[in-house]
What we know:
The protein is of the alpha/beta class. Helices cover 37% and strands 20% of the residues. The chain is built from 16 helices and 15 strands. It has helices at 2-19, 22-29, 61-72, 106-119, 136-139, 149-162, 166-175, 183-188, 221-230, 239-246, 274-287, 303-320, 348-359, 391-397, 402-407, 411-415, and strands at residues 30-33, 36-39, 42-45, 51-57, 78-84, 94-99, 126-132, 192-198, 266-272, 291-299, 328-334, 366-372, 384-388, 421-422, 433-439. The strands form three sheets. A six-stranded parallel β-sheet has the order 6-5-4-7-8-9, sandwiched between helices. Helix 1 (2-19) crosses helix 11 (274-287), helix 7 (166-175) crosses helix 9 (221-230) and helix 12 crosses helix 13. The radius of gyration is 23 Å and the shape is globular. The two termini are 15 Å apart.
Amino acid sequence: xxxxxxxxxxxxxxxxxxxxxxxxxxxxxxxxxxxxxxxxxxxxxxxxxxxxxxxxxxxxxxxxxxxxxxxxxxxxxxxxxxxxxxxxxxxxxxxxxxxxxxxxxxxxxxxxxxxxxxxxxxxxxxxxxxxxxxxxxxxxxxxxxxxxxxxxxxxxxxxxxxxxxxxxxxxxxxxxxxxxxxxxxxxxxxxxxxxxxxxxxxxxxxxxxxxxxxxxxxxxxxxxxxxxxxxxxxxxxxxxxxxxxxxxxxxxxxxxxxxxxxxxxxxxxxxxxxxxxxxxxxxxxxxxxxxxxxxxxxxxxxxxxxxxxxxxxxxxxxxxxxxxxxxxxxxxxxxxxxxxxxxxxxxxxxxxxxxxxxxxxxxxxxxxxxxxxxxxxxxxxxxxxxxxxxxxxxxxxxxxxxxxxxxxxxxxxxxxxxxxxxxxxxxxxxxxxxxxxxxxxxxxxxxx
Length: 448
């Protein structure tokens, strides 16, 4: 039964991934009939534009560009997108620039400069198609003022390690960027601008996804100061960033707000999200014979605490058949956070699986799968991990102390010798995480 549950969990996860394939998402939403380009009720006559350009950033930007190239054909003039190393696709016209994620690097800065230079050449008779997906914040670094790339790297790592949410992290990123927080739309103005977006943030907030390069910024200077206060980052933040955030910028330094003219000709559309992946996972689970429940696509908070909640639900299912009877599939989406206290290797999904393994020690026929839809969990080659009631007994046989690995944030090296890392390679999409729990206990419920 354990092997069947593991195989089913992988199949359900794969179905979730297939539903948010970026190439197919573009083809579904952006359609062309002759010279008419249509996107959710709005039409763009390609004969009215001298040039059509593609720009963008994110882990899915390459397959998104591939679809746009096929749709536009010879109507596409040029383009450039920044993608994470290894997240490529064969393109004819759009240039791919591979760069660093989650910490930005020089390659990302060079690509961002090229994008800015391209946009500065556009005019009222041009159409710009912007392709945005998860990872776009790190992959589009272009700091303002005296802030250096190294300064951005330091503050990004400090925010990631602090346990700050992606909303909070991106609020800071927008404040110190030349292209985020609506500034890319301002650079493209007065061109017509279409932004096609894969959401990787809880709630699908447009101004948070990739730090909202084509969306008006709703965060204020006061918000940014509060975030740095909350996580006590003043001492860890580079002086250039502290000085820039503390001062009230001039109107030219402020991020554009909703009444800015740059957004009059801008259409922002989400074409894939975590909820779509979760629903597809549910349908696959049902087809495999499971009773299904979606807990939420808005799950956030400390990973270990979220794991305890999922484990408690499993035990309730086994004990009482609530909130759903076995064979059961419990699905949740969203994105948790890990407060780094140790020097180990891992990511939030692997840590979720490790914390869950401890909680379900000895439970029969229970399998947890937690993985990032982008195929990357933290700075590792794993998307996540799989845990079951047999994980702890197997670990003890190998003298692996689960609690020590958890305390060291070293979930990767706990699961690696067990063969329970989930390694997919780059998926070229990114809509946060999927967590699956499959329960099919024997009649007497629990056992060693």
